[in-house]
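[job 0412] stage=fold_complex status=start
inputs:
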Amino acid sequence: MKRRAVIAGVGHTSFGKHPGRSAFELEAEAAALAARDAGLDPLEIDGLLTDPGFARGPMEGITPHFLRLGGLLGIDPLYTGTEILGGAGSAAIVGRAALAVEAGLCSTCLCVYGDSALSTPGAYAYGRGDDAAYGLFGAVGLHAMAAQRHMHLYGTRPEHLGEVAVAARACGARTPHAQKRRPISLQEYLESDPVVDPLRKLDCCLVSDGAAAVLVTTEERAAALRRPFARILSQAQAHRLRTFTSPEHFETLPAARCGPEALARAGVTADDVDVALLYDCFTIVVLLQLEDYGFCKKGEAGPFVEGGRIAPGGKLAVNPSGGLLAEGYGGGMLHVIEAVRQLRGEAGERQVPGAEIALVSGHGLGMNTHATLVLGR
Amino acid sequence: MDPDATTPPLPEPDALTRRFWEACRQGRLDLCACESCGHLFLPPGPCCPRCWAMRITTRTASGEGAVRTFAVYRRTYHPGLPQPYVVAVIELREGPRLVSNVVGCAPERVRIDMPVRARFENVGEFTLPRFEPAGPEKEPS
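[job 0412] stage=fold_complex status=done
writing structure:
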């Protein structure tokens, strides 16, 4: 019988400031919570895949992140590695764990993201290679250029970006563990400080210390654990390494290639998605994904989000836990975890009734990488 | 203040980009040109990114282009680069695109598709190709 991969356990630290705690300590806490949630003995874990976040980098001298973390956790796995795909890393390692489990390379794979970016001043204020000579710093500049082009081509307005920010914070208000629980108004969004025009402070995701982990195992093993699990129905990735050499850059994300593909592989369409966990490092990325995944036509994401359509109680449930804009910067792993909680029906006040199909995306680097998972009950 | 702190970040030429920066110092914006298929490209690379031919020569660009998209930095990330400033992706008339600055006009006047032309500016030991409006947006200097 073909082995099918499922997510059997999830866990995360609180997100916010953890002064004096190393990211490894946070990762260990998240791993232990995921094992406890699944009801799995850590000794059973025979796979380890990691996304090391940004502040540390993937290597400490000659020691890659998986080696240090695996040693600290006491794991001698059959399968391991560290992915460096920026914000697509978490979705990608969960997808890779599913492939490894289904191929029989390992049986139970721990997937961990962790970072201490908030306690590392300037972690995201890096210069982008030689382009730093022109003042291209951080991820915000490139995303501002994408927003500028969307506004130019389609008449998208600041209020449309604001709808995304307001919806995220309304979701955060319904999420007990969210880093930002105070809702904001559209007016507050419009008055928020400019960072890189046309993006304001409230267009930008939070910076957090924290870690999040999931356990991927076989359906057979998960069924014996008497805990609801989430199926990994399909996955796809697409990457645009040419950056702005590609004529599509700043207009679509690589999601335009892998998003529809992932949905088709799961045998569903955008209309079947009950809850969309869209990577939201900046508000514009949510608008671009609504188009690229086929929730609306190209260029129409601005009007699509008007009137609270992606806010709590709206027509499309997007990031009910608040995402990177309100829940905390979880590298994309919190998106995976929220999808599992929604499919298990354990999301409390923010539960999407009867959620059966969840879409999870990850997006990273200079809008170069993208990974998609489709999860089901 | 430490004088280094006010020097903006500078390019770090390597074996692939050294010739590009040397040409800039001489007031030229040199593109890579594939001897096999004629493709013109930036950034400089070891092979033609279209046909993978290894024989690459250079061709000097006109310096004319248009703003493909841009962003206005309203925060100072480096003391040597005080805000506001415009970072843009410029599409050259010959096709290749590059990141640069739009200078010589107020940030509020920069528009997508605005015609621009290269203007070489010295920063430290380097000469950076920046771009100024080629049309009516240019402010008298």
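[job 0412] summary: The radius of gyration of chain A is 19 Å.
[job 0412] exit 0
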